[in-house]
UniProtKB/TrEMBL annotation:
Organism lineage string: Bacteria, Bacillati, Actinomycetota, Actinomycetes, Kitasatosporales
Name this protein carries in UniProt: Multidrug effflux MFS transporter
Pfam families: MFS_1
Family: Belongs to the major facilitator superfamily. Bcr/CmlA family.
Top-level taxon of the source organism: Bacteria
Organism from which the protein derives: Streptomyces ziwulingensis
Protein topology in the membrane: Multi-pass membrane protein
Residue segments, region Disordered: 1-43
Amino acid sequence: MISPSPSPSHQNAAPGSPDGSSSPGSPAGSGSPAGHDASGKADPSAVRPAVLVTVLASLTAVAPLAIDMYVPGFPAMGEALGTSSAAVQLTMTAFLAGLVVGQLLIGPLSDRTGRRGLLLGGTVGFVLFSVACAVAPDITLLTVARFLQGVAAAAGMVLARAVLTDRFQGADLPRHFAVLSQIMGVAPVAAPVLGGAVLSVSTWRAVFAVLAVIGVLLLLAVVRTVPETLPPERRHADGLAGTFRAMGALLGRRTFMGYVLVLACVSAALFTYISGSSFVFEEIHGVSSTLYSLIFAGNAIGILLAGAVFSRLTGRLRLNTLLSAGVGVVLLGALAQVLLVVAVGETLAGTWATLFVTCFGMGLVFPATMSLAQSLARHAPGAASALLGGLQFLFGAVASPLVGLFGEDSSLPMALIMLVAAVAAACVLAGLARPWQGHGEPEGAGPAGR
């Protein structure tokens, strides 16, 4: 068993661990061997960090691609399968449900069995269920296949965070999480464009065929570049029940759940923006679909810029400071959006500017919460990743349909829902995470780690 030395950053530890680090899940340093491949021969330190992070980031992009690529084909799907638009939209709900369930199952399971086998199995499953979606003869089978596709896609998302936590520590960890967050910000922008390009030359079934091809490429990349980062001697030895008990114990840790719920609340604001922005810009402000794509891409650049700023500042500022700043920027952008609509009315420039500010704040929140939460739960990185990702998409799935329930003649519903989510994030940050106490700061990241 490998344990990092106790430090003040390991406060609010798990039961039975005085510093939250004396358990089988503790990682080796980023410059020393951290595990083996499936045959027990490969050394993770032999894999270049840039290559490993690139593959893991690509795995996290699979779910956003699978969510948004086929959206432009909804009308054609309904016509081809002889079903309603509501039934077609249910296929997306099924995928999101699979994504939540998959992360909650695969994450803690990986703390017992290791990462590589589940990652390979999940990627193979994604390929197979993508093919099943492509050939589904009716909406019922398509919905079932989409749910299973979501479960399989969850493996890449949840295990990417766990592998990074196994493999890296100190200032390296938040920098690499920033890359994952940036990919998550870009993928939803690229997905509809890629899907539209496929639909311009083929049918909606070809979109799932393309997803299957992407899955095959990722499978080859995983086989060649992602070793086992959790060797047998550092796995939970008390059976599957013990791994899920570890996840239950994390649910009772105030600070850890504070970071998880901050991420979930800010994700609810992001999903609200994604689901409502096309209506706001195209219907209320009358922009073309092309201009809307540019606006959406511009706001995604805000997430990218924030990720770059976050990476530059992780060695200079505490992660809790960056998290607090990110939540403050999200709150400021959402509040400005509401006040602008109420005081001035609907303005294209004002809506775009306030949403850009909000997206920039999100780009700070995502890597900060991931880094802090995973650092607090190094004894069970898979379970921690499961809760981070599962609640993130659960809150997002609940929030995204709310915009359409409150009227279609104003952008105020979207703005208010985003503001409520931002206020909730700020309250959770202050009440549970309590960033001034400095929990979860990785050693070597910011002044506290020097």
